[in-house]
Amino acid sequence: QVQLAESGGGLVQAGGSLRLSCAASGRTFSSYAMGWFRQVPGKEREFVSVISRRGTSTYYANSAKGRFTISRDNAKSTVTLQMDSLKPEDTALYYCAATRIDCPGYGCSRDRGYDYWGQGTQVSVSS
Question: What DSSP state is assigned to residue 14?
Fold first, then answer.
């Protein structure tokens, strides 16, 4: 089993940057592809990005391409999401999640494919 904990959220003006981090417990972190999702009240979770087990492959939602960068450090059992050029529509509760699926791939953008979830960290972008 894996426990995940996000951090780094906050309030930022449009055009600004935030760096989200996710710390994982356990010895098998490298056995999981890691994804980031976001959610606003009343809507389903939305896929943002995913990184493969070794960190050699990444995949981004169209809304994140060119602005967000996902990375991981298996030695430290962490995954990060660097968010640049933030827009008000990026405002959401951001979750990290772990999946046994060999990501990236289309199936890795579905939240039901993920086994473990963090508690979320709030990102608010003002205009």
Answer: T
